[in-house]
C-alpha cells in the first residue's frame, strides 16, 4: 500500500480549518460574529464527522481483509473519493442547514466477500455510528471540562447533539442504515433478499414516519436526548447552539 493511499486529504484539512475558524469566531461577544462562528462549527464540523464516519467503515474493513478500500482512497478522508459525494456530503449538509434530521451517508463501497466472516461484517457496519457516538462524547466532554466562551460551548454542544442523533438514527435496524447492516450477515437468505429490495426506500419511509406520525418524533428525540445525557451532553447549551445556528427562525 502506497503512502498516498493513507495520506490525509487537503480537502479534509480544509474542512478542519473551517471548523477551527468557527471556533474562533464563536468566542467573540458580537452577535453576528458569534452566529457566523456557530454556523461554521456546525457545518464544518458535521462535514468532518461525515468523513470520519465513512473512514470508520473503511479502516475497519481494511483491517478485516478488504484491501480495496485503500486503493479507492477511502483511507485519505477525502470526500471526493466517495461513491456519491452529493448524497453522502452535500445532501446531509443541506438537511442540517435547514434544521432537519442529520441524514446518514452511504459513501464507501465495501467488498464484503473479502472480509473475514460475519462478525467482521457487523463490525464494519457498526464502526460508522460508533464514530459518531465517540465524537459526541469527546465534544460533550470538552464542553464540560474546558473553560470556553458561551458561544463556543453552545456551538460545540449542538454539534455533539447532532453526532448523537446520527448514532441513534444509524443504529436502527432498518435496511439502508448501519444497524441493519450489522444484522444482515446473520439473517436468512430470504430475509436478506427482502432487505436488499427495501434498502433504497426504507430510510425514506423511516423519515416520513418520524416526521409525520404523531408521537414518533418525540420518542425518537427523547431517546437522542437520553443518549446525549449519558455521554455528558448539556441539553440547554445544545438548544442555545441550535438557536444561534438557525438564526433566521
Amino acid at each position: 500500500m502506497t503512502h498516498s493511499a493513507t495520506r490525509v486529504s487537503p480537502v479534509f484539512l480544509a474542512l478542519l480549518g473551517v471548523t477551527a475558524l468557527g471556533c474562533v469566531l464563536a468566542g467573540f461577544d458580537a452577535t453576528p460574529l458569534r452566529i457566523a462562528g456557530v454556523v461554521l462549527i456546525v457545518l464544518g464540523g458535521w462535514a468532518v464527522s461525515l468523513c470520519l464516519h465513512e473512514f470508520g467503515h473503511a479502516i475497519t474493513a481494511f483491517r478485516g481483509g478488504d484491501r480495496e478500500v485503500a486503493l479507492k482512497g477511502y483511507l485519505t478522508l477525502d470526500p471526493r473519493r466517495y461513491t456519491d459525494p452529493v448524497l453522502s456530503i452535500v445532501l446531509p449538509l443541506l438537511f442540517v442547514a435547514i434544521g432537519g434530521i442529520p441524514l446518514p451517508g452511504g459513501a464507501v463501497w465495501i467488498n464484503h466477500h473479502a472480509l473475514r466472516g460475519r462478525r467482521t461484517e457487523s463490525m464494519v457496519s457498526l464502526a460508522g455510528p460508533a464514530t459518531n457516538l465517540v465524537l459526541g462524547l469527546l465534544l460533550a466532554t470538552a464542553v464540560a471540562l474546558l473553560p470556553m466562551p458561551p458561544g463556543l460551548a453552545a456551538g460545540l454542544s449542538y454539534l455533539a447533539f447532532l453526532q448523537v442523533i446520527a448514532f441513534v438514527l444509524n443504529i436502527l435496524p432498518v435496511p439502508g442504515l448501519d444497524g441493519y447492516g450489522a444484522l444482515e450477515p446473520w439473517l436468512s437468505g430470504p430475509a436478506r433478499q427482502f432487505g436488499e429490495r427495501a434498502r433504497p426506500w426504507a430510510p425514506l419511509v423511516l423519515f416520513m414516519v418520524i416526521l409525520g406520525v404523531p408521537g414518533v418524533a418525540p420518542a425518537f428525540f427523547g431517546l437522542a436526548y437520553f443518549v446525549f445525557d449519558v455521554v455528558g451532553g448539556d441539553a440547554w447549551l445544545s438548544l442555545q447552539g441550535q438557536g444561534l445556528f438557525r438564526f433566521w427562525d
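The chain has one domain: 3-245. Residues 31-63 form the longest helix (33 residues).
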